[in-house]
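Researcher: We plan to redesign the surface later, but first we want a full-length starting point. Tokens attached.
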């Protein structure tokens, strides 16, 4: 039995992670329409990872005999005006998700819920990587995005990303 507020935040995080998947699928579709298929692939894989995150929160609740309460997934609300705007929205979103993870961690910390803190450790580290990846994409695009040949090579690099299941197993 987990603390009521911790349980509520974990439940809300399921929906937030599915929203992340939805948002990145929207990004993927944007790049697909522009024939930047490597970027489209990169965000499609990213969306898969976000679905995995959602399922980890769901599994964790069930492992602790807590009821899963699925919320509504909102329509992606980022204006897909140009490539750099999309990439920057990705970083902004990951920073927001980091703040959500930290808020759950704080709630668990306040009630000395060591099990949930241990579970969240993986996500704390993961968010560091997510922010780094999003920031790196922006920097690469700023360096190479304005030159068609360089952009083609960057897109080819993005095409190489393959899906791997998360290292956290519950
Ligand atoms: Fe996530
Ligand atoms: Fe993420």
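Model: Full-length starting sequence:
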């Amino acid at each position: 039995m987990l603390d009521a507020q911790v349980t509520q935040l974990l439940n809300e995080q399921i929906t937030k992670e599915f929203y992340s998947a939805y948002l990145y699928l929207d990004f993927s579709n944007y790049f697909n329409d522009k024939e930047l298929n490597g970027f489209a692939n990169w965000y499609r894989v990213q969306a898969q990872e976000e679905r995995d995150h959602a399922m980890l929160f769901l599994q964790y609740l069930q492992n602790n005999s807590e009821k899963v309460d699925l919320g509504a997934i909102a329509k992606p609300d980022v204006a897909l005006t140009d490539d750099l705007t999309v990439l920057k929205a990705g970083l902004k979103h990951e920073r927001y998700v980091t703040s959500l993870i930290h808020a759950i961690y704080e709630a668990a910390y306040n009630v000395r819920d060591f099990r949930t803190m241990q579970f969240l450790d993986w996500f704390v580290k993961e968010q560091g990587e997510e922010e780094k990846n999003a920031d790196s994409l922006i920097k690469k695009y700023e360096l190479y995005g304005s030159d068609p040949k360089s952009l083609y090579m960057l897109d080819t690099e993005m095409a190489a990303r393959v899906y791997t299941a998360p290292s956290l197993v519950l």
